[in-house]
Amino acid sequence: MDVFEPRDGGEKALQARADELNLPLCGALELLPLCNMDCNMCYIRHSSSELEQPLLHAADWLGMMEGTRDAGTLYVLLTGGEPLLYPEFRELYQGLQEMGFVLTVNTNGTLFDEKWADFFVDHGCKRFNVSLYGASNETYARLCHNPQGFTQTMNALRLMKERNLPCRLNFTITGENRGDIGRMIQVARELDLPFTPVCYTFPPVRKCGRVDVDEIRMSPEAAGRARRDVTLLQSPASERASSARLLLNRLMLPVRTDSGGKGFPCHAGLSSYWIDWKGKLTACGTMESLGVDLRKTDFQTAWQEIAADGKEIPICGECVRCGLKLFCTSCPAVSMGETSTTDGKPQYLCDMTVSFVRQLIAELPTEEQGFYADLLERRIPT
User: Fold this and answer.
1) What DSSP designation does 6 have?
2) Dihedral, 323, 324, 325, 327 alpha carbons, nearest 10
3) What is the full DSSP assignment across 337-374?
4) Which of 12, 132, 161, 164 has its CA 20 to 30 A from that of 309?
5) Is-contact 35 81, C-beta < 8 A?
6) What one-character DSSP code corresponds to residue 314?
7) Is 70 exceeded by the pLDDT of residue 280?
8) Where are the extended beta strands (E) located within the chain?
9) What is the mean pLDDT of residues 65-89?
10) How far is CA 310 from the centre of its chain?
11) Cis peptide bond prior to 134, omega within 30° of 0
């Protein structure tokens, strides 16, 4: 998962340069694994009684962040769990700002009220990434076990808009909210907010009381259809076929296979990092098995270690050679979650991707479908 999303050409150039120099430009602070909701598909949630150790204090975080600032970090994402539950959030937020960091906050929005709005108006925020899990309280009750969640989240979004606090929506599409996709997009349009949909459900690798992933996510075929829906519903009905065709033309592009079979395909370990709620530095928040305890090691030493490890991490050879990689989000973290090894084949994601492409083909006029179906068959790994 990306820690930092550049908003303009200057930020993109800055991140590209940080990648080149292997400088830790951006980092996520996972303040706690606790949340006021209990979403079926959450990969991290604990209860208070399940914590193996106390939460870090704001002073602990600020002490660790001195090292990240000195190493070149500018952008910091505050996340969780639900970060607004963190007991010393205000103290930490103000301390990070005083240190010069540019701050973004992930939140489900359900705790965001007038007092929080006043706080952020006074102190500013680069952006809020607000998770929208459905378009009704009924959906929130099924998926998040919060029967007032939609009302609470909509209240937060209105407060942010009224106070001119920048925000973006994140959609996590599951079997429980798939029927809400159209209305979720409508909410984003009515509020004039950008949104990012995700239809792949990551296995709950860090959740206490781990459940069977097959119980919490759609079949790969259904997930592919949902991805088609959330992609094409962003276009007018009259343009669905044109939008599908534009995406399908990727099947005619050459596939690069020069990765050497190692390393993350994103910025993890190049210019971004994750620090979990216990103070462990990792390249990616979903791969806690690879990390260094910052309570025992200085940041620069720890960064060099995870950066070196990240460049050598083995990745799935079939993914490297796959003809559908331009449609896919496979990475070592996904392989680890699906297969317990970074170079295992993530079959669920493979099947989901093939389903997505087939669903796009079905949107075309009948006379065009055969051409793209033939291209697809040539691209599917054997």
Assistant:
1) -
2) 160
3) HHHSSTTS--HHHHHHHHHHHHHHHTTS-HHHHHHHHH
4) 12
5) yes
6) B
7) yes
8) 26-30, 75-79, 102-107, 127-132, 167-172, 195-198, 272-275, 280-282, 291-293
9) 97
10) 19
11) no
Tell me: the pLDDT tens digits for 183-223? Answer: 999 999 999 999 999 999 988 776 655 567 778 899 999 99
Residue recorded with tokens 């949902």: 226
CA distance 226 to 179: 9
Distance CA 200, CA 180 (A): 16
Given a contact cutoff of 8 angstroms between Cβ atoms, the answer to whether 230 and 197 are in contact is: yes
CA separation for the pair 105, 89 (Å, rounded) = 11
**What was the pLDDT predicted at 203?**
84
* Sequence-separated (6 or more) residues with CB below 8 Å from residue 43: 202, 203, 204, 205, 206, 207, 286, 337
Query: Given pLDDT bands bounded at 50, 70 and 90, which one contains residue 241?
Result: very high
Q: Pick left, alpha or beta for residue 209 (phi over 0 → left; psi -120 to 50 → alpha; otherwise beta).
A: left
| Bridge partner residues of 78 (DSSP) | 29, 105
Q: Provide the phi-psi class of 136: left if phi over 0, else alpha when psi is between -120 and 50, else beta.
A: beta
Place of tokens 């959740």: 207
pLDDT in tens, 308-318: 999 999 999 99
Angle of helix 114-123 versus helix 149-162 axis, rounded to 10: 30
DSSP per-residue string spanning 99-122: TT-EEEEEE-STT--HHHHHHHHH
Task: Kindly report the pTM of this predicted structure.
Answer: 0.94
Report residue 206 as tokens: 């860090």
Residue count (the chain): 382
